[in-house]
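pinging the channel bc i need a second pair of eyes. not urgent but kinda urgent?? the chain im working w is below, pasted from the shared doc
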Amino acid sequence: MQTPEPPDTPEETAKAAREKMDEVTEAFEDRLKAFEEKAGESARRRRADQAAKEEKFISDGKAAKGIGIGLTAAYAIMGTTMVGLGLGWLADRANGGNLWQGIGTIIGATAGVAFVVHLSNRHNA
């Protein structure tokens, strides 16, 4: 029969436990450092994505504003011209001539262009 080995002394057991804890602590610190690096990279990527989204949002807003101003100008010129033509047509029907359609059209177009100049000055200032 084989005799069992005597149990380790408390000092040896404590020393082995300290060594094992040092190994575990080093492994934990390495993993923690790797995790912190991944978290930092993720945060940098998220900030870059957020900045790109904000830049695109601002760009889209400027484009939408430009389209709105352009459509307003187009509708103003067309609308005032058509209103002037319509009022001239009504005046011609009432008087029996055809002079007022031309005059109304010119007045409407002039009013539309004046509004567009005003609109342009207001948005460029």
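so The two ends are 104 Å apart (CA to CA). and The CA atoms of residues 50 and 116 lie 37 Å apart. — does that match what u expected or am i reading it wrong
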